[in-house]
Amino acid sequence: MHTILEQTTGTVKATVQKVITGERILQMQSLIRSVEVDQIRRDFVVRIVEGTHPDSPSAPDMIKRFVRFGSSPRGGQAILLSAKVRALADGRFSVSADDIRYVFKAALRHRLILSFEGEAEGITPDQILDGLMEAIPEMGT
To answer: pTM here?
Structure first.
């Protein structure tokens, strides 16, 4: 803790070593965006994001009871881009439902605003998202 405080609040300037070029970052971004997501997986992400809204007909009871505001479309974007990265890291060029399930909590937990009741009962975003995933079918019905 002392070292962190000294280095971040004192006069010593940190030395930074270049590890990647801007051009390489742009190439990686382009590669990530080229990973395929079929309509079934996109629909799955849409159902997840819509399911975070308490006024949505598809929202599970837990969402309706404990969430005041759900995710914006940016949550869906975060899920898809993160799932694409995971697919690439696994050597695949298409997103699977497992990729979506793996990343969705990290993409959405900070995008939920709990209701007073949710806060009062000590409900966590992860509990809500676990319940949502159980309630949202991978394939549309």
So the answer is: 0.85
- Residue 59 is part of a domain; what is its CATH number? 1.10.8.80
Buried b (16+ CB within 10 A) or exposed e, 98-116: ebbebbbbebbeebbebbe
64 falls within a domain:
yes
- Does a structural domain hold residue 9? no
Collapsing DSSP states into helix, strand and coil, what is residue 134?
helix
For residue 60, what are the contacts with CB-CB under 8 A and spacing of at least 6?
51, 131, 132, 134, 135, 136
* Tokens found for residue 110: 């900070």
Q: Is residue 17 part of a domain?
A: no
Give pLDDT tens digits for 34-88.
Answer: 999 999 999 999 999 999 999 999 899 999 999 999 999 999 999 999 999 999 9
Whether residue 8 is contained in a domain is answered as no
- What is the number of other CB atoms lying within 10 angstroms of the CB of residue 9? 8
Q: Total structural domains in the chain?
A: 1
| Triad 107, 51, 104: Cα angle to 5° | 20
Range(s) of the domain holding residue 62: 36-135
Whether 108 and 126 have beta carbons less than 8 Å apart is answered as: no
